[in-house]
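Tokens in:
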């Protein structure tokens, strides 16, 4: 069996952000987002009627492929020795989820677009990696996922130049489909900022910060494997939900004299509900409990949810809030068989 390609640790470089002038005019997507403020939030009907569904791709196959794409990019991150650069993984997977709301996975296979999303995320995350290095490692990881003997990619061959040409073309189409909206704050960063703010505002004790942050930030990365979660909720709602779930799991006591943070920090009345936080965490808990092995989440780190506490500072229960319908929570069972072993 071939060994992984020789690797030079990527060095941080100044931001390399794509500009509209670099995109070929002929690369026209099937559809593009419209409203800037709501362009990345979708209801259940929109998710169910995505271009892949219209292209006769079965829902279970679609969820499986996106789950596989997450695993592929995570494996690529590890092979590149970029374990600490989880923001790259989160951005790349978020690009992929958004892309497939406007393009079909049948037209643009997940393995091809995973590489393009990862390449773009390295640029937007200000972490330089050459296309040659990325393609070498992606070629190696693809062989593992396709259950073929891993082989090295020779940059002097026609195969390499065809792959490089495909990468450039896919990145252009990705950019156009995203409307060049590539400014993404990783969910784990939002979780860290929120938790630090809550400590400063005396919502809970500073001694509880480190374990709560570690657990919530770890969940934040794993949630990107869910096919729909990041399309149905805002990143701020997800961050609050994860902090809420981590506090329950670790038995962190919130300050009863303070207004609950999901009320004080909510962007609107729809978000200012403990039932909404619980709804988000039930989706996360169900998903992680089913796929904790593939996601390498130890059983002791799985969410442990309790009943609602009072949402009002006076101890009165919050008025009932309408929550979105439950999201589907799993790719098909074949995924467990397809997950490659660690090299």
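Residues out:
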């Amino acid at each position: 069996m071939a060994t992984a390609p020789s690797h030079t640790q990527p060095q941080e470089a100044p931001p390399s952000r794509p500009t509209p002038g670099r995109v070929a005019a002929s690369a026209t997507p099937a559809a593009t987002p419209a409203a800037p403020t709501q362009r990345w939030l979708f209801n259940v009907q929109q998710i169910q009627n995505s271009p892949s569904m219209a292209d006769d791709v079965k829902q279970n196959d679609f969820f499986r492929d996106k789950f596989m794409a997450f695993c592929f990019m995570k494996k690529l991150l590890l092979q590149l020795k970029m374990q600490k650069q989880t923001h790259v993984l989160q951005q790349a997977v978020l690009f992929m989820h958004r892309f497939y709301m406007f393009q079909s996975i049948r037209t643009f296979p997940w393995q091809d677009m995973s590489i393009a999303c990862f390449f773009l995320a390295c640029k937007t995350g200000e972490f330089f990696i050459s296309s040659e290095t990325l393609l070498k490692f992606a070629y190696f990881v693809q062989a593992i996922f396709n259950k073929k003997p891993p082989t090295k990619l020779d940059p002097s061959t026609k195969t390499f130049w065809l792959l490089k040409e495909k990468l450039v073309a896919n990145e252009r189409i990705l950019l156009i489909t995203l409307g060049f909206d590539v400014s993404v704050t990783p969910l784990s960063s939002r979780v860290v900022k929120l938790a630090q703010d809550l400590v400063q505002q005396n919502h809970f004790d500073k001694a509880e910060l480190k374990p709560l942050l570690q657990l919530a930030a770890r969940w934040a990365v794993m949630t990107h494997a869910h096919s729909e979660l990041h399309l149905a909720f805002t990143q701020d709602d997800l961050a609050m939900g994860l902090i809420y779930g981590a506090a329950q799991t670790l038995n962190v006591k919130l300050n009863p004299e303070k207004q609950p943070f999901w009320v004080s920090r909510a962007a609107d009345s729809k978000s200012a509900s403990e039932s909404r936080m619980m709804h988000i965490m039930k989706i996360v808990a169900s998903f992680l409990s089913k796929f904790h092995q593939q996601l390498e989440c130890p059983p002791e780190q799985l969410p442990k949810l309790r009943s609602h506490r009072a949402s009002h500072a006076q101890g009165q229960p919050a008025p009932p809030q309408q929550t979105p319908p439950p999201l589907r929570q799993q790719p098909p069972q074949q995924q467990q068989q397809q997950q490659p072993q660690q090299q």
